[in-house]
Structure formats: C-alpha cells, structure tokens
Amino acid sequence: QDMNDQSELDKRVQKFLEEHRQEWNDLNVPFEDGQVLYDLIVDNNYQSALEIGTSTGHSTIWIAWALSKTGGKLITIEIDKERQKQAIENLEAAGLSDFVDFRLGNAHQLVKELEGPFDFVFSDADKDWYVQYFKDIDPKLEEGGRFTAHNVLQNMNGIQEYMDFVKKQQGYETIVDKSSSSGIAISLKK
Ligand SMILES: C[S@@+](CC[C@H](N)C(=O)[O-])C[C@H]1O[C@@H](n2cnc3c(N)ncnc32)[C@H](O)[C@@H]1O
C-alpha cells in the first residue's frame, strides 16, 4: 500500500474506533487493551497472528489495523455464529477485511489443526482452556513471538491456573500489562 492509501485507511479505522468506543458490549476488550495489542504488533513487526475469541471484533480491529502496517495477516476463531457475523460486518465497516481470515467453530479443535507458524497470539475465549491453548500453540510460535492472554487480573475460573502455569515456562518471559483493569499477560518466547 502506498502512503495515501495507508493514511486513508488510518482515518477510516480511527473514525470507526472512536464512533464505537462506548458501544462494545459483547465481552469485548476495552479500548486501552486494543491499543496495547496494536503497539505490540507494530513495534515488533509481527505478521502472522492468531486470535482465539473474536466475539464482535473489537480486538480484531486493533490487531488487523496493526497488521495493515506490517503486511501481516490474522486468523481469528469464534464459536458463536451471530457474533462472528457482526464481527465480519464491523471489520468491513472499518476497512480491514483483507487482513482477516474468520474461522467459525470450537477453538479446542481448530487451534490443534492450525499449521502456523505464528508470531503473535491473543487468547481471549474460554479462560479454563487457556493452559491447553498455550500448550497447543507453543510448538507453532516462533522465537521472539508473543503469546498474550486477556483478563488475567480478573478472578475468573482458570486464570490462576494459567498464570501459575505460564510463569513456570522456562522458554518464556511473562509480564502483565495493566493498561486496563482486565490485564493482559504477555509472554515472550525466548
Ligand atoms: C471475551 S469474548 C472475545 C472478545 C473479543 N476478543 C473482542 O475484544 O471483541 C470471548 C469469545 O470467545 C468465544 N468462545 C468461547 N469459547 C470458545 C471456543 N471454545 N471456541 C471458540 N470461541 C469460543 C465466545 O463465544 C466469545 O464471543
């Protein structure tokens, strides 16, 4: 994309994000957390991303927008057909559809079937499966890549188990971003 196309796209995405800022109510990430995901991808030039839990696509927009800068692509998985439909419409409205491959189904199976490799993963579906998602993706995550997981500051079923597990991983360095009260665990593969 040339510079003009890119700035047109930026304007369109920014307008969409501002207009919808207060309207996300399908378990979507807060705006601040979207910004964190965007920065991680752009700053590290990540190009092969996976999202588990699309819902209606708020984080998907931030990730896809970042990938529009790096020349990357996102696979995003959702089990709920209606939410996925709304996400597809939202990405279309934001002008970011070209960067996203939407998959409908149970991520428990789909994640195992994905080939990879990935350099950026955002885990935001069923929290009590976070450990298993990590185990399934680990061999498909590149060195220097990051596995991120949402809601780690919240007292949800599976979160404590996930944090205990991920902090023990020898090949990873994990920090928790506290930009919002949800919290994002960010694990760098060394
Ligand atoms: C917290 S929401 C995702 C929010 C989204 N990342 C955003 O910011 O807009 C979690 C989503 O994961 C989906 N989900 C839960 N379990 C799943 C599974 N086993 N496979 C695929 N999707 C699942 C839910 O239907 C829900 O829409």
Q: What does the secondary structure layout of this molecule look like, with pairings?
A:
Layout: H1 3-19, H2 31-44, E1 48-52, H3 58-70, E2 73-78, H4 81-94, E3 100-104, H5 107-113, E4 118-123, H6 130-137, E5 141-150, H7 159-167, E6 172-177, E7 184-189
Parallel strand pairs: 1-2, 1-4, 2-3, 4-5
Antiparallel strand pairs: 5-7, 6-7
Structure, explained:
The protein has helices spanning 3-19, 31-44, 58-70, 81-94, 107-113, 130-137, 159-167; strands at 48-52, 73-78, 100-104, 118-123, 141-150, 172-177, 184-189. With 190 residues, it is of the alpha/beta class. It has one domain (3-189): Vaccinia Virus protein VP39 (Rossmann fold, 3-Layer(aba) Sandwich). A 7-stranded mixed sheet has the order 3-2-1-4-5-7-6, with helices on both faces. The model has no long low-confidence stretch (mean pLDDT 97). The structure holds S-adenosylmethionine.
